[in-house]
Amino acid sequence: MGCAAALALSDRDAGEIVLLERAVPGAEASSAAAGILGAQLEARGPAEAALFRRARDGYRAWAEQLRAETGIDVGYKNCGALQVAFDERGAGEIRERALGQAREGLSAEVLDERGARRVEPALSDRVIAAAYFPDEAQVEPPVLLRALVAAIARRPRVSVRSGVTVRGLLVEGDRCAGVRLEQGELRADATILAAGSWSSLVPGVPASMPEVKPIRGQLVQLDERPPRVRTIVFGDHGYVVPRGDGRVVCGSTMEDVGFRREVTAAGLASILAKALALVPSLGEAQVGPAWSSFRPAADAPLVGASPLAGLFLATGHHRNGILLARETGERVADALLHS
Ligand SMILES: Cc1cc2nc3c(=O)[nH]c(=O)nc-3n(C[C@H](O)[C@H](O)[C@H](O)COP(=O)(O)OP(=O)(O)OC[C@H]3O[C@@H](n4cnc5c(N)ncnc54)[C@H](O)[C@@H]3O)c2cc1C
Question: How far is the centre of ligand 1, averaged over its atoms, from the C-alpha of 62 (Å)?
């Protein structure tokens, strides 16, 4: 969120911009994500649906812009997504979702078991129905973060300071006047809080700001040769995301365990069981790296002005921060420049 905001502000010539990061930009959730741009899979309610679709539909152009600026391909692929059901109850739910979206003019199809396997031949024969969302897409988050940092670093009047921890907000009277660092302070006309799962822990954050808390997610990458899976497949809280070259990212868990950065035996067992239930041939795949990170969870994303003058928010995106990154950058830049 910090990188996306810096880029959007620099596009608008917003003066001198400093990005502060205690490790390296992208060290946390943003590089750990699966990279699903799941606007139709994830949206709950009409307001989210419109925002999520705008975010997804703008991604191709953003990926092209980043490639033109940096030479880095962020792995944008319009690979489509299948949401599958193994029983009648699940089939009813996804049918309702897909038909509702189709009535709104979105690309969404209800498929029987044979139709689903035509889209994704590797699908389990236990699947009885599926909703197909051909416009869903993906990016590769670690590469996206590299491209964002490379783009920012090339901009005049933007500096990236890695290894710098913000110790607190500089609150003067009823205004945020910048931040306190380990050594000294950095004064600013406007400050954006984009500290992900750590946002509520920054001293000086207004008490009235809704809490952002970490929800751990674990992922494991498999390597299938030759590559078989073509489409993102979503099932009962499990998913597989094929990168197209044999790498398949399988996820995930949703765990309220504080900041315990672990990959657990139970986490891996449940992710692999769900992945193999969706695509049995993944049982032959080589097991690659596994990792975990923290989704910054709030009731809804916190974007724009805050209760403290001079402080703006770009946090709390929970499961959809990669999808919403560019939109968030634009919205927080709008709020800041029109305040
Ligand atoms: C397992 C998993 C899978 C996911 N899959 C998807 C997906 O498929 N699609 C999708 O859209 N989203 C996905 N997400 C969600 C997405 O990753 C997050 O919503 C998004 O990356 C959050 O971005 P952020 O910038 O708010 O947080 P982060 O990327 O965590 O960045 C916050 C940064 O702030 C820094 N920081 C914190 N405190 C301080 C301080 N005091 N001083 C200086 N720096 C500080 C941290 O070091 C960190 O780099 C997933 C998340 C997880 C964990």
Answer: 19
Candidate from 20, 22, 193, 263 with most ligand 1 atoms within 8 A of CB, to mutate:
22
> How far apart, in whole angstroms, are the C-alpha atoms of residue 334 and residue 301?
16
Q: Is the peptide bond before 252 cis (omega within 30 degrees of 0)?
A: yes
Place of tokens 């307001």: 47
- Paired residues of 109 in beta bridges: 132
Give, for all 339 residues of the chain, the pLDDT tens digit: 999 999 999 999 999 999 999 999 999 999 999 999 999 999 988 889 999 999 999 999 999 999 999 999 999 999 999 999 999 999 999 999 999 999 999 999 999 999 999 999 999 999 999 999 999 999 999 999 999 999 999 999 999 999 999 999 999 999 999 999 998 999 999 999 999 999 999 999 999 999 999 999 999 999 999 999 999 999 988 999 999 999 999 999 999 999 999 999 999 999 999 999 999 999 999 999 999 999 999 999 999 999 999 999 999 999 999 999 999 999 999 999 998
Pocket test for ligand 1, best of 20, 21, 233, 324 (most atoms within 8 A of CB): 21
**Model-level pTM?**
0.98
Burial of 150 (0-12, 13-18, 19+ CB in 10 A): middle
Which residue has its alpha carbon closest to ligand 1 atom 48? 28
Atom 39, ligand 1: residue with shortest CA distance: 195
**C-beta of 21 in contact with ligand 1 (< 6 A):** yes
